[in-house]
User: Fold these one by one.
Assistant:
Number 1:
Amino acid sequence: MAHMVFCAKYKQELPGLDEPPFDSELGHKVYKTISQRAWNEWVERQKMLLNEYRLQPWTPQAQEFLVEQMNDFFYGSGGELPKEYVAPTA
């Protein structure tokens, strides 16, 4: 049986992650409060942010930015898309 969580993003009980996504306080918070569905959506959002802002994920500045965006995506307003972003068409 899947690990179930009350997802902070979707406000309902959903299957959670198999394990914390990273070994930190935030990683354990995500494990306890974010569904697999929401995490998969975050992974896609993160890719878009990396590409749109041309971030280098190994830099501390990019990591800090992504953590802020992730917190907003899961626990805040959902995060804003970059002004220049154009969604792909079918």
Number 2:
Amino acid sequence: MVSLNMILRTLFFFILSIFITSCKEVKTEVKTEVNTEVIPEVIVEKVSVSTYEDLEGNPIELSDYKGKRVLVNYWATWCRPCIEEMPDMEKAQTILEQDNYVFLFASDQSIDKIIKFKEARKFQLSFIRYNGVYAKENVSALPATFIYNEVGEQVLRFDGGLKWDSPEMIEKLRAVK
């Protein structure tokens, strides 16, 4: 009689021999052709991108408005609170036009989309395109509004839709130094 130990040993060596013979390293040569064509040197110039641009594609920077108080409102065409506060912002803009204020409405959407929005809604606001990333400005929700004084320092920030033409808000904006 064949012992169980003998059967297991035979089975083990059988499996081992199959494993060893099937795992042989096969070397193959891969030939590659060397391209002898000369590639001309390409000089790439880095184009500076402005932070903002007007609806004609002209670059804008907030520093262009030094000497003025600037209100920058970050918004989007799909943002309901953004759209709901725009009529009040139009009124506040009219009230504060003699107080050295510039109102800018910056969206990261395409210029075409902003123009279509402006034409459809008939707002008399200065819409511009924001070429940056909202996170860089610490904007995580829209609308977000930043107020800069005449030397270009950010002095106020408002998150969410507000009543911009209220006497309290007008007084707060007039007090910006």
